[in-house]
């Protein structure tokens, strides 16, 4: 009990219109707007809940916040104490922030990289089903995981594994680690890099056919496919990647395995069973330690 899943991601983006076009026309994801203070932000509707990705107009493209859903108020209090004991300052989210997230309680802290990490109780259902363009049903089914690259790999591992109680699923030497907070293979991966960044954010899809339809639409619409269709070695997911307007990747995938408490972490060796050819150099081909 504790953190249950990745709930939402907020992004500062320089081109909300380009993001909206990619999400709607190519990926079949609805985007609505909402007021936050004086800003009008875009909310990407991946499933029946309020939103999974929030797009904040900005002069720079940077992560704004990463939101984890916590099971119960006692779990939130316990994790808050663990963070405080580890030297983190935990603060309550504002009423406006809490309402926008669809949460009943919200707390946040700053991770070793400088990103705002939120812990939320509750999720608000905003619809009974999600409208999709023709040929995309059921399309996306939710937010899967993200990969965070940073020169502070050791500090991030300590935070997620020792403080927030994520479990190591597997790794690839010398500097790429996959962690889970539920039965899915991973909710976050941490990698060594010279500068902090989100390498990719993954959107879960209902089937290989849904992934294939998105792949066809991406090619037809001229979307920048940055990593071709393929199957990963460790979680067995079938996916492809597009480069989004902020410069990092969106992974469109399905079929990742689930693991139990008897799972033994191991080095999974090569990255892919087949496919996943990169248009640019793969930064994790030989990860920095």
TrEMBL record:
<keyword id="KW-0058">Aromatic hydrocarbons catabolism</keyword>
<dbReference type="InterPro" id="IPR029068">
    <property type="entry name" value="Glyas_Bleomycin-R_OHBP_Dase"/>
</dbReference>
<dbReference type="InterPro" id="IPR051332">
    <property type="entry name" value="Fosfomycin_Res_Enzymes"/>
</dbReference>
<comment type="similarity">
    <text>Belongs to the extradiol ring-cleavage dioxygenase family.</text>
</comment>
<protein>
    <submittedName>
        <fullName>VOC family protein</fullName>
    </submittedName>
</protein>
<dbReference type="Pfam" id="PF00903">
    <property type="entry name" value="Glyoxalase"/>
</dbReference>
<dbReference type="InterPro" id="IPR004360">
    <property type="entry name" value="Glyas_Fos-R_dOase_dom"/>
</dbReference>
<feature type="domain" description="VOC">
    <location>
        <begin position="142"/>
        <end position="255"/>
    </location>
</feature>
<feature type="domain" description="VOC">
    <location>
        <begin position="5"/>
        <end position="122"/>
    </location>
</feature>
<dbReference type="InterPro" id="IPR000486">
    <property type="entry name" value="Xdiol_ring_cleave_dOase_1/2"/>
</dbReference>
<keyword id="KW-0479">Metal-binding</keyword>
<keyword id="KW-0408">Iron</keyword>
<keyword id="KW-0223">Dioxygenase</keyword>
<dbReference type="InterPro" id="IPR037523">
    <property type="entry name" value="VOC_core"/>
</dbReference>
<keyword id="KW-0560">Oxidoreductase</keyword>
